Amino acid sequence: MGLFDSFRRDKKEPPTIKQTEVEEKKPQVQIKEEVVDSAENQTKSSLQPDSDVIVDGEMVIEKVEVVEREPEPEEAVPEIENPAFKPIKTYSEKLPVTHVIGQTKIISILNQKGGVGKTTTAINLAAALGELGKQVLLVDFDPQGNATSGLGIDKREIDQCIYDVLLNDVPIQDVIIPDVSEGLDLAPATLNLAGAEIELVSAIARESRLKDAVGSLRGRYDYIFIDCPPSLGLLTINGLVAADKLIIPIQCEFYALDGVTKLLISMKAVKERLNPSLDVFGILLTMYDGRTTLAKQVSREVRNHFGDQVFETMIPRTVKLSEAPSFGLPITQHDPEGKGASSYINLAKEVIERG
Predict the structure, then answer these.
(1) What is the DSSP letter of 39?
(2) What is the DSSP pairing of strand 184-187 with strand 136-140?
(3) Count of CB atoms within 10 A of residue 235's CB?
(4) CB within 8 Å of 173: residues ≥ 6 apart
């Protein structure tokens, strides 16, 4: 082999276009390999026992220590407790009366439209008068018995109620529960009263059964209130015949005057045929919300129509008034400083002033 032959073998041929493209790509491949190598090295180093770093791909994440914590106690949701039912006493256990009782006024509270605050007014007006030093009897004459449960009496524990007075000739003193509130006694009702509407149809002197019963109590109470059912049946007729006067609660809503018209027609018929002394003692505006234009309009229309018969006091719409029956208390005990309590105290004073 000659000198030129060895020279010819060492001499490189000029690069082609394809070789040039490959050589240009080589540095990039090397960079990627270096990056991968460095990442792999970093991953390997992170997997060492003494390392505090974990590598996830290209993201470096610090180690997170899991710490067990005690669960925070959940806030207890307040629940309305069942009312503590009052003990059922007999009439002979009634506290002595400390003042001279004058002429007894028997007042029925009724409106054939339901949900107008009739029972609420019966409970709280009677309780307010009792706290003002009067002796008051509330006759629950509604088969629903809401006035009974609203004063903290367990209807399941009642042996005899106003139904037995109407149909079984039981003296009303035998069913009265005394001192359910200061100065307030209660003649309770149970679901048995629902059957009285049918049983009275064939009874003798069916319209005056209640009148004969409560008439025997004149001189023992300053006021006797009758909480009538929201209807114009025989029970309501009994309430109209037994009463001297009538209080009509009217809700400050659109249909307020609808039921009152029919009620006044019935009252007129009872007055002409059965009870000449019956008259309207007062119209009471209930569930009044002074923020609404509708309530103001209804109040204005009622006052324009009935004039001085409308009480100056208006009963506001409040949450406390709605929840008081669930505690078995009148509003004067459940929320004595609230608007509802002050309204019924003012109404009670107005009732006393009207005589």
Answers:
(1) H
(2) parallel
(3) 25
(4) 91, 217
- Determine if the pTM surpasses 0.85: no
> Is 140:192 a contact under the CB 8 Å cutoff?
no
Type of residue found at 217: L
* Number of other CB atoms surrounding residue 202 within 10 Å: 7
Q: How many CA atoms lie within 13 A of 4 on its CB side?
A: 0
Mean pLDDT of 298-324: 92
Q: Are residues 33 and 181 in the same domain?
A: no
What is the full DSSP assignment across 66-129? ----PPPPPPPPP-PPPP-PPP---GGGPPPP-S---S-EEEEE--SSSSSSHHHHHHHHHHHH
Is 10 domain-assigned? no
**Is-contact 184 127, C-beta < 8 A?**
yes
91 lies in some domain: no
Give 87's pLDDT tier (boundaries 50, 70, 90): confident
Say how many domains are in the chain. 2
Does 147 lie in the same domain as 31? no
DSSP 309: G
Structure confidence at residue 231 (pLDDT): 86
CA 327 to chain CA centroid, nearest Å: 11
Q: Which of 107, 104, 129, 108 is nearest to 344 (CA)?
A: 129
